[in-house]
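Working notes for the structural subgroup meeting. M.R. asked for a predicted model of this chain before we commit to crystallization trials. I am recording the input and output together here so anyone reviewing the notebook later can reproduce the run.

Input as submitted:
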Amino acid sequence: MTAAGGLLLAGGGHSHALLLKRWGMQPERRPQQSITLVNRSSTALYSGMVPGLIAGVYQRDELAIDLRQLCDRAGVAFVEAEIIGLEPEQNRLKLQGRPELHFDWLSLDVGAVSRPSAAGVPIKPLEASLAFLESEDPSDPRPLRVIGAGAAGLEVVLALRRRWPQRELQLQQRSGQLDPGIQEVLQRARIALIEDNTPHSGPSLLCTGSLGPAWLATAGLPVDSDGRIRTDRCLRVEGHPSLFASGDCAVISASPRPASGVWAVRAGRTLATNLEAACQGQPLHPWQPQRQALQLIGSHEDAAWARWGHWRLGPSPLWWRLKQSIDRRFMAGFERPGAMANAAPMACRGCAAKLPAQPLAAALERVGLGGQPEDAASLPGSEQLLQSVDGFPALVSDPWLNGRLTALHACSDLWACGARVSSAMATVTLPMVSAEEQQELLVQTLAGIRSVLDEQGAELIGGHTMESRSAPPVPASLGIQITLTVNGNSPKSPWLKTGLRPGDALLISRPLGTGVLFAGTMTGATKATDLDAALKGMACSQHVLLGQIEPIREGIHACTDITGFGLLGHLGEMLQNSPGLTVELDGSAIPAYPGALDLFKRGVSSTLAPSNRTAWRWLEGPVQLKQPPSAGLLELLVDPQTCGPLLLACSSATAAQLTQNGPWLQIGSATAAHG
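Returned structure, recorded in token form:
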């Protein structure tokens, strides 16, 4: 997070993506201040290839810029959140559902939204319009209308023709907007040309020009008639020397240019240079954008037009090949060099940073604390009052999300005992940075912890803070360590790990694979969409499952949560005092997060996995696999989990109820040894 002297990058537009690339490749240029990027998603779509995506020429991964990975390479903290406002005089950026972010320097590259000139789905933001097109039925007899016949509308409707060869399509134009040559192309493509203001009751897509997000104007920033922020030639916001703006949300007052990815890309170098200079107190450098830029507009027949001002050539296959070459070359610049599975592994974070099972068990035995471990301990005098403790080094660079994940992970120990969390105490170790930055890091961390406790009606009743004595990492938010003590109560006797009975079904509440996904992230091997899916699952609280289970609680015989030792390690703990039982696992039923099994095939694994593999010994004894195991399944069984699933053993009748209502999946069953 940022504080005095900090730089906040709002939005993941093309200009910001390019400066992150610059700082990743040339770290000596990166400002020494703390830097944070906040964006609504972890990826940014390259606008030049969006029509190709709509047409089916490209897959989404081919035009998705991985902002989280770029931030990791550039030493920048990444925050995934929706921006809802700005208070420039107080140096605060407001976010949806979480505390505001403070800054000293702010750069805005938040894109634009479509002008709401008619009923329909706006083409911008792109994520929403692409989801709308995915939901459309190609056989729908109703015509789909694209409203707006500018370059964007023309390219989109022709891309839709390529996507849907048979569906009826319309393009709505202003009277006389398109010349006969373009009209002829539309006629060949069987796209009906509709005059403006013609009523339409079917689905519509708005390509009606763009506006700056509404919150820019309400923040009191100087904007033009389209809501775009006015800047000087140095990309500094007029009247606000600590604010910069670029891309579709901004316009240079002295040299206005259209909202286009072309200008956003070309502004990237100037923005980076001036942010670097501003943070060092150096003079800024003005930029004079060229008056015209070459535009390449794709058609539906592997051809494209070339437009320069009022001149237009094509459509021609030559221009189409040139457009593809330029777009692919641009995206190739964001590929991470050396992202190979056999690269030297970095130490994993999250629960994968815990002590391996063997030295932990040996140490506990030597000091007289060995025996059967439980997820939580009953407090003396009452077996219904439970306490547990958990924590780990920062898993992500967003301290709010890291606080939330740590709290969810710690609370899981009580949920595994059938207990509800009532209170918690936190110990937070902060990196050695300025007092202002420590304050901001602590605010975000505690807010993330509270977001979990508040959902359960629990309270954060106290804690302790410490300062690390090691050099802070870059970004400094990765130097946070949290330990959380959680307290709760169980309405009846708590579930134990032991208690498996013959005939019990084994159920799991969510997928596995967080360990390998985060390990792959450190080498660039994990896809952004796969990590997003894992984080989305991890950030969901499982306390709601207790309400589902409570009415049939008597059918639950044993439970644990799967964390650092993996499914097989924790299943082994459940079997330690059950010599007369055999467990059969259905490997095909064990769920994995998207991308996890593929990473195992590529040789990626967590740094805790080698020690966890000792649990494979259980496969030679009481644990049997229903099918011959694949290498990927064997690794999945010992993959360490952060915010992992609950694993419970219950009667077959209880299993039938749980698997019908909720996320539970049956992955195995217990039988008496020798039949």
